[in-house]
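Usage example:
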Amino acid sequence: MFLYYLKLARISIIKHWGMSALMIVAIALGIGASMTTVTVTYLMSANPIPHKSDNLYYVQLDSWDVNNPANDDGTPPDQVTYRDGLYLFMQQKAYRQSIQAQANAVIEPEGKDALPFQVSARANSADFFSMFDVPFIYGSGWDHQADISKEQVVVLSRETNDRVFGGENSVGRSIKVAGNFFKVVGVIDTWQPVPRFYDITTGAFNESEEIFVPFSMIAEEKIGRSGNTNCWKNVGDGFQAFLDSECVWLQFWVELNNEQEKQEYQSFLNAYVEQQKSFGRFERPLNNRLSNVMEWLEQRQVVADDALMMTAMSLMFLIVCLLNTVGLLLAKFLSKSSEIGLRQALGASRRTLFAQYLVESGCIGLAGGLLGLFFAWLGLKGIDVLYGDMLRNLTSLDTTMVVAAISLAIVTSLLAGLYPTWRACNVQPSTQLKAQ
Amino acid sequence: MKEFSLILKSLMRNKIGALLIGLQIALTLTIMVNAVFMMQVRSEQMSRPSGLDEDNIFYLSNTIFSNDYNQPVNLKRDLDIIRNIDGVVDATQINAIPLSGGGWSMGLQTETGEEQDSVGVAVYMVDDHGVNTLGVDIIHGENFSLSDVEWRPSSKTSWPAKIILTQAMAESLFAETWQDSVGKTVYINRDEPMQIIGIMKTLQAPWNGWNGVERSILVPYQMETKGGRYIVRTEPGRRDEIMPLVEKALSDADKGRIIRRVTSMEETRERSYRNHDAINKILTVVIAVLTLITGFGIVGLAMFSINRRTKQIGTRRALGASRWQVMSYFMLENLIISTFGIALGLAGAIALNMWLVSSFAMKPINSELLFAGVLVLYAVGQLAVLYPARKAASISPAIATRTA
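Running the assembly step on the lines above writes:
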């Protein structure tokens, strides 16, 4: 029976091809526009590390100016000071912990023709790789002992390894970074969390780093830090003074396995701050935060206002397109009154008629959805062109979105078809037959 | 007016069709007005002048990796090389680039003390060639002299004795008396004094979304840094020809560093406002497509209602109605539906705007825009109904004599 309805739908769609095309295009535009913006928003708000986002916590301590809060909404500063970060790291109170900051360095490859080039670097501690599930092609990260004994080791991204070592297994070889030789211990496979949650301050949608070195290299002045730095108090001259200052410039993450560990860590933080208060630091009220990955992304409002606004607009756009389709379907089905009357007179039940017209609406929806997917793809290409590398990791359609688009198209067109179908099936056969 | 009540009566018999079109018009108006408004706000931001001679300025990064690098000597050498290239107007080392998104900010206050309010300001470190290189206008006071320029080793944090600030910054510190502020002292880091020696008209901060984007200062500093930047101004029209010359001259002069990211101000502006520009383009497409869909929806439904009423129209024609009377019937019908939709749409537009104001700190919409939106939608409605109405008018009176 379904196949028969499909055949009827085909005949009807072809017969009123102009109107059908109009409906299909309207649905497609609505689906295309909303899917484009929803995709961007969906990727912006995606969980970058779903299986353990609840166990990774970003640490914030309120070390700020007693007269001025760090943020207007009362949240503590977005990063921690060197002395606080180093203390938390040395205590090793969490299951795992990562102290880290953004850096950059020049790599001088060997060979006469090879030119030096600049790379973005991350200075982090050993646990970084296991905490954030960084995939390796060769070797692995360094161990905790390497952090403590300040070994000059480095982990390379796949691209950097391709560039310097031609993609070979470079573990054990050395590479000149910022004027010093570092031993390669591992090469990372392509790794790009979206959002790049582990350091939002330098861009939530930026590329992940090209090399990774032990955090201690910064204090040793072997590698130059970069990234966001905020100070509220005068620093004083010299690098040591900077390290001792109240400037915040590093990120501290901990991995905690359950609620109890979290509470213990929170008390540990509070005890530390209370103790620091007696030295005249931390003059603000106690305001230490442990936010898991999604809470942290939410707090920093990683999903841009623009994206939300556009999503709201495009959903309204979709509604306009659907109103359009309801109107056109209504017109179309009502114009078939005589045909319906005839079929009813010949014994077709309302149920069969209902099914027939819903199949027709569904077909239009499916066609609109497929065309809409194409429009969404075009829209994302357009966004790619307009935004360039600013949103470079946010413009691909994944299976979820494809399925969502098609189902949205079919469901909405069925809904849109419901009322017209109901109206069409309520035609009195007698009136139609009489008019003939 | 007899027509009017007739149309109303027939509309009431086919409420749903009219309602659907009305709602479509309402939503279209709601979206259109707010989208245009968002575009206007963005365009205004994009048209603010940066204060720089943007067309003729470019900059580059000087990344030092050699461990024995004599910065004071090499900085002077580099600047001499650049300034002596034919077509270069001037050049200076600088710590940040306007509109680029990355920079340095500090707070200034007019009296010392922790509890005094300070005003946030973007800091540009330049030498005595800074004003000429950037192309900013000094409206009061004077430029730095060579002897004002201090050497700033890395991690030194005290500040030089003199500054030049923008008019907007002077106004924030001194309100109405800003014009007399040359010679006055302001404090950085709560208690370190700096004397104002000049006021420039405009120089934007690196952050275009900051509400203090017009507040910046110049301080006379030469920096010892491994990641320095030079900014260069050329004679009008010669920028593109000089950019590679400077890059090559600097690369050849020294192998202990990399010259990278030679970038024009034009590109920086484009990048800075890419977001704004992209959204404006997207909104333009949205408005255009939406208007088209609404237009076609009106055409479709009007065609349908005409097809249904073929016989009725034929009868009217046979009874002596002119073509124009038939046409005006449908145009008036559309006018009534449009009015209903537009009234609803005005309420929707204002409501959406109120939501945007409260959720995203947007400004309230202006009434001219609402008025323009109303006119556009009336026009779209009338245009869309024109073709079906003409089709209706062309129905032959003879139709009335046929059955079915």
